[in-house]
Amino acid sequence: MQIAIVTVSDRASRGEYDDLSGPLIETWLARAITSPYKLTKRIIPDGFVSVRDELIDLCDQHRFDLILTTGGTGPAARDETPEAMRAVLIKELPGFGELLRRVSLDQTPTAILSRQTAGTRGHSLIINLPGNPASIRVCLDTIFSAVPYCLDLIGAGRIETDPNIIKAHRPAR
């Protein structure tokens, strides 16, 4: 199982401030996942080309099973993560973004400005998470129960979770 965390931020990629969202995702995964996995973290600039090329590389060349992005989903001119995602995805899974926005509204009224999405490319599942560190835990707590089964369905690596943190939903056989 290979997991990538991709922080999309011009300023963090230039070292102007520390990435806070990526480490929060990493900590959450370490608590929730009980099966072995390899984690890779990347910080890239905002923009269509940088995000598109990074996602294609992670999916097609490195064959990551799960890719979690953070940032670049707002209405600002350089926020083009959703557009890059749609250029990369074979199948979009809009339910993830719908749910992420709904639960994020409990944290901040500006969540309505977010444009997260998710989808698959080959055997990779890609999910856009918000860039706001305060929303990351609640978003992962909300959506991650569906992630292991989705990975099963697309032929990606198997992931097991600690049911005390997040109970993975898999249909009874």
Give a short summary of the structure:
This protein is of the alpha/beta class and about 170 residues long. About 40% of the residues lie in helices and about 20% in strands.
Give a written overview of the molecule.
Pfam families: MoCF_biosynth (PF00994). Catalyzes the adenylation of molybdopterin as part of the biosynthesis of the molybdenum-cofactor. Pathway: Cofactor biosynthesis; molybdopterin biosynthesis. It comes from Ciceribacter naphthalenivorans. Residues 4-150 form the MoaB/Mog domain. The longest helix has 14 residues, at 48-61. A hairpin with a 2-residue loop joins strand 5 and strand 6 (124-129). This protein has a single domain, classed as 3-Layer(aba) Sandwich (Molybdenum Cofactor Biosythetic Enzyme, Chain A). Helix 5 crosses helix 6 (133-143). The chain has helices at residues 10-13, 21-32, 48-61, 81-88, 94-104, 133-143, 147-153, and strands spanning 2-8, 38-44, 66-70, 91-92, 118-121, 124-129. It is globular and about 45 Å long. The protein has seven helices and six strands, in the order βααβαβαβαββαα. It is α/β, with parallel strands linked by helices and 173 residues long. A six-stranded mixed β-sheet has the order 2-1-3-6-5-4, sandwiched between helices. 39% of the residues lie in helices and 18% in strands.
